[in-house]
Write a structure and sequence with these properties.
Keywords: ATP-binding, Nucleotide-binding, Transport. This is ABC transporter ATP-binding protein. InterPro entries: AAA+_ATPase, ABC_transporter-like_ATP-bd, ABC_transporter_ATP-bind, P-loop_NTPase. Pfam families: ABC_tran. Residues 15-244 form the ABC transporter domain. The chain is of the alpha/beta class. It folds into two domains: 22-78 and 164-262, P-loop containing nucleotide triphosphate hydrolases (Rossmann fold, 3-Layer(aba) Sandwich), CATH 3.40.50.300; 96-162, no CATH class. 38% of the residues lie in helices and 22% in strands. The chain has eight helices and nine strands. The chain has helices at residues 57-64, 102-112, 117-130, 146-159, 176-193, 204-210, 238-243, 245-267; strands at residues 15-26, 29-41, 46-50, 72-76, 87-90, 164-168, 196-200, 213-217, 224-229. It has a six-stranded mixed sheet, sandwiched between helices. Strands 2-1-4 form a three-stranded antiparallel sheet, with helices on one face. Helix 2 crosses helix 3 (117-130) and helix 2 packs parallel to helix 4. The longest helix has 23 residues, at 245-267. It is globular, with a radius of gyration of 18 Å. It starts with 14 loop residues before the first strand and ends with a helix. Bound molecules: adenosine-5'-triphosphate (ATP) and magnesium ion.
Length: 268
């Protein structure tokens, strides 16, 4: 069985964040959301990001996706290649476009990128197959279950062939069983494609199950307080890893790192 460290691919792009700060403009002046955030994600690595609510995780992902500008600091990311996005962002919950079929939803990012119609349909079908939704190509999002809709979102992100996949609590709205199934699917796709993934979650279980390393953020304004490697082998069978004593130790360690920050966030 491969250990996590053996699996980090080479030749792909990673993320390098140094001294990143962001202040939003509030009614009473600037309000800091991120303060001096520094970390690296290696090419092909799967990194989870956990932290109390409001600590700036979404803000960080939005900066990495180029949706908002930081106040200070630098981000080093792969350059965009023709027909390929540098990053793709998968949000929590409903972000499918209800008036488009599943196929058109998945092809949407490619349309925005200017990919010709025939090619974008082909690529969309390929990625729908990857998430097991080819049979629902012509359905509309409201005809799908929540888990299927979230698979459409994942296929849409993958279709743009990003070097880096940014995921912001993508499974938070799913029930436990469907969450486990989608985690399996994401891991399978990641093993095939070996994209660099930064995955935000509130679930310690999810962070341990999926990632090579967990970054822990402080209460607001967020910075990285520590990083915890996840030295569990892959593939990660849910039943097996739950019985691994290392799993319990990791969970206890993460909660130990997070508890004070969550209490601090709740007091503010
Ligand atoms: N557009 C905005 N304008 C002003 N303040 C904002 C804006 N977006 C976020 N904030 C503030 O920035 C801080 C960080 O918010 P952010 O959404 O990044 O946190 P988060 O860690 O993703 O929280 P959660 O875990 O609840 O999703 C919060 O205090 C929030 O109120
Ligand atoms: Mg958030």
């Amino acid at each position: 069985m491969l250990r996590a460290a053996d699996q980090v691919g080479t030749g792909l792009a990673g993320i390098d964040v140094a001294g990143l700060s962001k202040a939003y403009q509030g009614r009473h002046g600037p309000s800091p959301a991120l303060q001096d955030v520094t970390f690296t994600v290696r090419a092909g690595e799967f990194v989870a990001l956990i932290g109390p609510s409001g600590c700036g995780k979404t803000t960080l992902l939005h900066i990495l996706a180029g949706l908002i500008e930081p106040t200070a600091g630098s981000v080093s990311m792969p350059r965009r290649h023709p027909g390929r996005l540098g990053t793709a962002l998968v949000f929590q919950g409903a972000s499918t476009l209800p008036w488009m079929t599943v196929l058109d939803n998945v092809a949407y990012g490619l349309r925005v990128m200017g990919v010709p119609a025939r090619e974008r349909r082909e690529r969309a079908r390929q990625h729908l197959g990857q998430v097991g939704l080819l049979a629902s190509s012509e359905a509309y999002p409201h005809q799908l279950s929540e888990g299927m809709r979230q698979r459409v979102n994942i296929a849409r992100a993958l279709a743009t062939d990003p070097a880096i996949l940014l995921m912001d609590e993508p499974f938070a709205d799913l029930d436990e069983q469907n969450r486990l199934l989608l985690q399996d699917e994401l891991l399978r796709i990641w093993q095939e494609d070996r994209k660099t993934v930064l995955f935000v979650t509130h679930s310690l279980d999810e962070a341990i199950r999926l990632s090579d390393r967990v970054l822990v953020m402080s209460a607001s304004p967020g910075h990285i307080t520590t990083e915890v490697p996840v030295p569990l082998g892959r593939p990660r069978d849910f039943q097996k890893i739950r019985q691994d004593p290392a799993y319990g130790a990791l969970s206890a360690r993460l909660w130990g790192e997070l508890r004070e920050e969550v209490l601090r966030a709740n007091r503010s």
